[in-house]
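quick one, 293 residues, struct below
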Amino acid sequence: AIRLPAEGVAVEKVERELITQALERTGGNRTKAAELLGISRHTLLYRIEKEGHPNSFLFGTMHLPHPDILALGEKLRPYLGEADRLVVEADLHGPAMWWLVGAMRSQKDLEGVLGADLFKKYCAAVLERGTDCLTMRNLKVWAAAQALIQPVDPSQRYRLPPIDLWIADQMRTLGRPVEGLETAAQQIGFFESIPIGDQVAELSEALDHAGEIDSELEKMRALYLAGDLPGLEALTLDSVSLNPKWRELLLDNRNVIWLEKLPELLAREPIFVAVGAAHLVGPTRAAAAAGGG
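---
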């Protein structure tokens, strides 16, 4: 049996020592180390420890408004309170959000870009998902594709904030600044860099699988709530709404940029980093900044 020394013990120090020993014994294999310690590698929250610096945290969010996902927020409050700053993908608060909405709109009519047949097919799909097709006519193709993969229940979509926006609201309530790893303009730039032909082809393919979107979102939500990042990675790789070319552009390329910026932010002050959970998996995962390699 393990006995508590009379002088007491620092639990965090013991925890770090056990993790270090487990990693040494398994040659750095984190999955095997977790098995040795009887803990799960499934996690959405990483503690980032830097010698001589207070702890920071990295959390994987999901941009789906759902009460079960939003309920995770209460568990995050203690960690939010330890951070002096929130770092998100892009701070879309206030004017930045209005700029983003404007940037999604095109001078060209969507039907003229897609052609009559594909536009008719798109209208039928968005109508089934509770959206008026007329509001989509002035969207850019990539924005129209994003609208297609939103949750089908519009009342839920607008009633509940995604957890990343909830986190930002909590930090602002605490008087903590919010900083983006990229600007709204840079975020839009990733989409704009996709050739228009590829955008149309991606939208067409997504329409061919429109009937699978809801079941895929439900699988994604279940994996997320279970903290199953390997499962999320597998689903993302096989997603009907994200082909390999888009994955490289929207996930991998952005991760590389973020990983260059995060060390400077971590050295400055204790921060809470909240980015989409899909950015915590794969070869360029942002979790590498937390030693989640």
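The first strand starts at residue 45 and ends at 48.
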